[in-house]
Amino acid sequence: MKKAFAIALAALVAGASFNAALADKKKKKKEQAQPQVEVPAPVVLANGSDSLSYVAGWMMTGGLLEYVQQQLKVDTAYMADFVRGFNEAVAQTNDPHEVALRAGRQIAGQVRNNMLVRIKQEYTNTPDSIVEQVLFRGFTDALSGDTTVMNAQQADKMMRQKQQYNQQARTARLTKAGRDFLAQNAKKEGVITTPSGLQYQVLRQGDGQVPQKTDKVRVHYEGRLIDGTVFDASSKHGTEPATFRPDQVIRGWTEALTMMPVGSKWRLFIPQELGYGERQAGNIPPYSTLIFDVELVNIEK
To answer: 256 or 42: which carries more pLDDT confidence?
Structure first.
């Protein structure tokens, strides 16, 4: 009986020791997984130069936090890591390896946040699209001089071919979509088509004066693409109507405004030829047919 009790007790102690060791191991692993926050040494401003240097460093950060958050996309919860990276970088200013690494990271940020965004936009609504990781590989292969896939001349030729092909396909698709929309829209009750191709629908007919091209008019408006996307509205710019001359806007607007009596509200259907044509205008893609609700408030004399 005593022997059995001793064996059981030994097993219990061994199990407890094992569990304690396992818990300690887990605790250490957890601590290692968490980033270690370096505690900076106390600041001692021993003389005027120290004071000037410290305050100069402090003042240099004006606007930096906003830049780091908005442009560099650094979460403020990780500012300790940002500071650690800064300290490591300034300590290794002349190390050529570190110089190269920092330059690579800086360029990567510019490529991802600027160049990649622009080229993705360029190839929106085209047969081909941009695959990020493949783009990055082409970027680094070019920098490394790796011609396994293609050389500089082949890349340049293919890029020009791709640009032409995708631009033509995009133009054809957008132009066809606009023409098909206008063809169907012309059949709707109340829609009037002018010789230029402008279509309009009278939502409310005013009885005021009709402006000339050089008159200054005040209008409320909302602009949409044919898929319903609102790209602009006077309400986005305040409560007051927009003010301009009919000869200062796109041709479709000029034509409509010089037919509208004050007090009218019309819905305009503007073909791309009377709009922005092949130009990208803000959020308006090239070759877009546009829809505007326009209310002519008054004419400023």
So the answer is: 256
In contact, 233 and 221? CB cutoff 8 Å: yes
Nearest CA-CA partner of 226 in 285, 166, 294: 285
Contact, 299 vs 206, CB < 8 A? no
Residue 288 CA to residue 286 CA, distance in Å, equals 6
- Tell which residue, 186, 143, 171, has the closest CA to residue 272: 171
The catalytic residues are: 221, 231-232, 250, 276, 292
For residue 291, CA distances in Å to 87, 95, 266, 274 come to 55, 59, 10, 12
Percentage of residues of the chain with pLDDT beyond 70: 87
240 CB-near residues (< 8 Å, 6+ apart): 218
pLDDT digits (tens, 9 = 90+) for 201-257: 999 999 999 999 999 999 999 999 999 999 999 999 988 999 999 999 999 999 999
